[in-house]
Amino acid sequence: MILETITVGGGCRSYVVGCPGTSVGAVIDPEISAVERYKGIASRHGLTLRYCIDTHTHADHFSAARTIARALGAQVVMSHLSPAPFVDLRLDDGDMLLVGDLRLQAMATPGHTADSTCLIAHTSGGDHVFTGDTLLIGGTGRTDLPTGDPDKLYDSLFGRLLKLDPATQVHPAHEYKGREGTTIGEEIKTNPRLQKTDRAEFVAMMRALDIKAPTHLTEALRVNMSGAKSVAQLLGEAASSVPFMSMTELSARLAARQNDLIVLDVREREQFDAGHLPGAMFLPRGQLELRVNDAFPDPTVRIVAVCEFGKISTLAAATLRSLGYMHATALDGGMKAWREAGLAVEK
Ligand SMILES: [Fe+2]
Questions:
Q1: Is residue 244's pLDDT more than 90?
Q2: For strand 169-172 and strand 281-282, is the pairing parallel, antiparallel, or unpaired?
């Protein structure tokens, strides 16, 4: 089995696995910022990724399963219990995926989330299990996030996962301390949470954990459950669809007084009144679409959108481009940077 471990953002682990004989591969728990890395690793091994598997609905990072699957013509794979509408292939307990000659068998292990699924691979080099957040090195997934259930986690661990061959290599979806690997037997012996073998004690321990919520909890759940965009993706797409103008360039053009472009300030009224670029036109982002026809009868006019930090102006320029204003651009930076650079401001 080809097996590559990819660590993203300090603690999220994902895996590229593959069959060397058939060049078929799969990615497990991919994260959005590492899309090009997975593709690069797959091509380094000559693998075609056929499956993009999420072991569960992640609450702490943005899944790349759909992005990669759509780019490569692969299938998004998750449990039948996943709420995500874009899953191509839904697994029941015991179902098996054929990754070339490699077999990945699903074991439903609810607890961290209702849709948590582990994947077991029997290979000539020994057994492996991809545990998602059901079992971590020296820990377990939390059970206090949506659909978590400590009772079910107890059953999934003690009733199922820990009954695998003790030599089975464990590959979790998180590892924050950089530890390389572990086995089922090693975890049974040393994992502090697994020492609570009594159900009531285990459940009480899980309920008593006081872990702070993941940084992007609501946004990650929204994105992973719907397949829609994160705010960062939305901004990234807008930024790649428009050209920008540097502060130096715009400043020089304004000083030359050629009157060949419109500086469009898309902030709110108070911000505009407190100081704007010389000659800037005021049209807040919220009213842009409804007022463009009157504001800009000529679609060939050159417009430079400006806001406070350079993000809303990027969205505004992208909107203008999509409406046919083919010379719309955004200032690279915002009024904050403009003021800090000591450039001309008028009130
Ligand atoms: Fe998780």
A1: yes
A2: unpaired
Q: Please, what sign has the CA dihedral across residues 218, 220, 223, 224?
A: negative
Domain that holds residue 198: 2-228
The band of 210, judged by pLDDT with boundaries at 50, 70 and 90, is confident
pLDDT band at 180 (very low <50, low <70, confident <90, very high): confident
Provide the pairing of β-strand 89-91 with 244-245: unpaired
- Say if residue 52 is exposed, middle or buried (CB neighbours under 10 Å; 0-12, 13-18, 19+): buried
Please compute the mean of the pLDDT values over residues 214-223 and round it to a whole number.
88
Q: Helix 150-159 to helix 199-208 angle, to the nearest 10 degrees?
A: 130
What is the Å distance from ligand 1's center to 94 Cα?
21
Domain closes at, from 187, 210, 228? 228
One domain, residues 92 and 215: yes
Task: Give 29 Cα–ligand 1 centroid separation in angstroms.
Answer: 10
191 in a structural domain: yes
CA of 135 to the centre of ligand 1 (A): 10
Report residue 215 as tokens. Answer: 């940084």
Domain closes at, from 228, 255, 276: 228
Q: What is the distance in A from the centroid of ligand 1 to the CA of 148?
A: 10
Q: Looking at the structure, do residues 176 and 284 belong to the same domain, yes or no?
A: no
Q: How far does the centroid of ligand 1 lie from the alpha carbon of residue 134, in Å? A: 8
Q: Above 80 in pLDDT, residue 10?
A: no
User: Does the residue 54 lie in any domain?
Assistant: yes
Could you tell me the CATH number of the domain that includes residue 96? 3.60.15.10
pLDDT of amino acid 82: 96
* pTM confidence score: 0.82
Is residue 221 a part of any domain in this protein? yes
pLDDT at 258: 83
Same domain for 299 and 218: no
Distance of CA 234 from the midpoint of ligand 1 (Å): 24
Distance 57 CA to ligand 1 centre (A): 7
